[in-house]
Design brief:
By secondary structure, the protein is of the alpha/beta class. The protein has 16 helices and five strands. The protein has two domains: 159 residues, P-loop containing nucleotide triphosphate hydrolases (Rossmann fold, 3-Layer(aba) Sandwich), CATH 3.40.50; 95 residues. It is globular. The termini are far apart.
């Protein structure tokens, strides 16, 4: 069996809807990145294609990986199941991708058709508007599950046409269970304060952010760094490892922890300032190393 950790209320509501055959055609899963939204979406799709009454009646979305259709769904080779997301190396979902998906949904079929859109906030305006008609007038057998990490960036017209499900951060114990179940070797105690309740973020740090974490550890734990460290050198080391983007996320967690410890409102102000820089970097494709350098300079100002 493959099971989902946490999100019990969401699982219960979804299972009730599947059992009652009242599942909306358009669903919106939103919440922090890396907490399991896509896993729930994929597992829900599995249950729509091959209902598991025992799991449904238990109020969860656990699935039987021995089911005859499971390999086909796992390998994304089922003809009526697709995932729409930015193409490799791209930051937006283009209108041509949406049109291809809509054409696929329009093809005749006796069974259900399911599309997962991940991450929906990366639909550009043209792509989002192209999707609206399908959301407004869906075929009876179509289900569209949208995954969103930042609800404020999604068009209100899209949001209004979906049944929303909020996904909250996982507890420390739930994160430990996820890591154990996935058999991933991670020093959980070292990184747990940098996950913000997201096992996905924890795994990302372990896989792609170790060097960034080490440099930021030195930056914060050596007082002389904060009074005039060679920020350029720190950023260059992190950038050589191609870890500047994740370093910004780690830096924000450091600042958040500082705010919780010191209760100094200035940490809150710096957090918002750096978070804004991070958002601008993603939206306008700004240089990650220069953004990190500017963010670290903001931090040093706290100690002057």
């Amino acid at each position: 069996m493959k099971n989902i950790i946490g999100h019990e209320e969401v699982q219960q509501t979804l299972t009730n809807m599947v059992i009652d055959k009242s599942l909306p055609h358009a669903l919106l899963f939103h919440g922090p990145k890396g907490v399991g939204k896509r896993l729930v979406a994929e597992t829900l799709a599995y249950h729509l294609f091959c209902p598991d009454n025992n799991s449904m009646l238990a109020g969860n979305l656990d699935i039987d990986t021995n089911h005859i259709l499971y390999p086909q769904l796992e390998e994304m080779s089922h003809p009526d199941f697709s995932i729409l997301e930015p193409e490799e190396g791209k930051k937006i979902i283009r209108i041509s991708q949406v049109r291809d998906t809509i054409n696929k949904l329009a093809m005749s079929s006796d069974g259900k058709k399911i599309v997962i859109i991940d991450a929906a906030e990366q639909l550009n305006n043209n792509a989002a508007n192209a999707l609206l008609k399908t959301l407004e007038e869906p075929n009876d057998n179509i289900h569209i599950i949208m995954i969103c990490h930042n609800l404020s960036k999604l068009l209100p017209t899209i949001i209004s046409r979906c049944r929303q499900f909020r996904f909250n951060p996982l507890s420390t114990e739930e994160i430990k269970t996820v890591i154990k179940n996935e058999n991933i070797k991670i020093d959980i105690d070292k990184y747990i304060n940098f996950t913000a309740g997201s096992p996905g973020e924890l795994i990302d740090i372990e896989k792609t952010g170790k060097d960034a974490m080490a440099e930021l550890d030195k930056f914060f734990n050596n007082p002389t760094n904060l009074y005039g460290s060679d920020i350029n050198q720190i950023c260059e080391i992190i950038n050589r490892k191609k870890q500047a983007p994740i370093a910004l996320s780690i830096l924000l967690t450091y600042i958040s922890n500082k705010f919780k410890q010191d209760k100094n409102h200035k940490w809150g102000e710096i957090y918002e300032k750096i978070q804004h820089k991070q958002q601008n970097m993603a939206e306008f494709n700004l240089n990650a190393m220069l953004t990190l350098e500017s963010a670290l300079t903001d931090v040093t100002k706290m100690y002057k």
